[in-house]
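User: I'll paste a sequence; please echo it back and then give the predicted structure.

Assistant: Echoing your sequence first, then the prediction.
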Amino acid sequence: MMNRPQKELFERYKQPLAFILGIYPTSNLGAIRNLGRQKIPTVVLDAKRNHAAFYSKYTKGFVCPHPKFNEEQYIDFLILLGKQLPMKGVLIPTGDTETLALLRHRKQLEPHYHFTMADYDIVNTFINKKQFYHLLEQHDIPHPKTFFPSDEQEVRDTSKRLTYPCIVKPVYATYFRLHFNTKLFVASSPDELLSYYTKAHSKNNEVMLQEIIPGNATTMFGFNAYYDRSGVPHGGFSYQRIREWPIGFGNGCCIQHVREPQLEQITSSLVKEIGYYGIVDAEFKRDPRDGTFQFIEVNPRVWMQNSFPSRFGSNLPYIAYLDAIGLPIENPPNHLPDEKITWIYLLEDLQSARVSIRSKTLSLRAWILSYHMGNEYALFAWDDPLPFFVIGFQSIPIFFSSLFKEDG
């Protein structure tokens, strides 16, 4: 049960508390700092006591049940927490597991919290890849050739329509990653395709088979914005990957701002079609064969690089917070950003650069020159340095063990 000192802590705040919910330190720290610098009080919840975000000066950390393994206890914890609040809090999830858990129990939580996104059925249209790609198909939006086999015979039939290598991806990413410690399988032949399908199916993972659009990290683009209840985007921001980890099918560990109006047009048409509101991180891959932007996925929540748009005036967690509590949205000023600023996740970029330099796809000089004081770093911040050192210490064994693995 919530003790009295914690209740008194909440009562000190004169503004609604923002609750940051997720396990990813980059996503959580970005949201915490984005809100904290606007004087918005935050609480971060995680199942692990050593979560690096707990060490940020901008937040208070609480250990909670794990939403993936103990969803009912997780919701009960939030309700108990909510009952101690002097005013309704604001829920800001940073992961799919947390997002879906909150939305499944929206009616129970709404007496205590404001939500920053649409209802479950709408949000799940983005998270559930089967629904998402059917939506793209219905509206003739370019996307990779994708199939959803229901059994092994359909895999055999589909294997004749794919080129190799191709990929096997989950409809829901969370449990697939838990079972296999990877986000997808790459199949080099029809036999391997069937083998991976069987492997995934053995753990009750529904999967899709998808062509690989050619191109390296620099062909990956994204669009971020907060969409209000009228489908109007606020704080629109586009980016391009420079490097990624793991190389080939990982996350952007070094990205830069670009101007690509087409990304906003495509994303907005889809958002309005389904009636979504909330934060969006839409990912695209530019097909070098014809120059089209192929829609890959949408994260309908705070994402790992959310601190980057704020450097250009697009503080999306803050915009979502304002809209959730009914205050006017503060749109970013029109100004020309410094195109030289990049967002870098140092721990992953070190690994990406090591492999790329060895394979001669990146020079040491070019990598070094991409680092300068003006960059936005995922973990380090001059006004909030402690989480960086905590994560650095925690990551030493992982980093050095990776040095002895084969590059791939």
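The chain is about 35% helix and 20% strand. Residues 203 and 260 are 40 Å apart (CA to CA).
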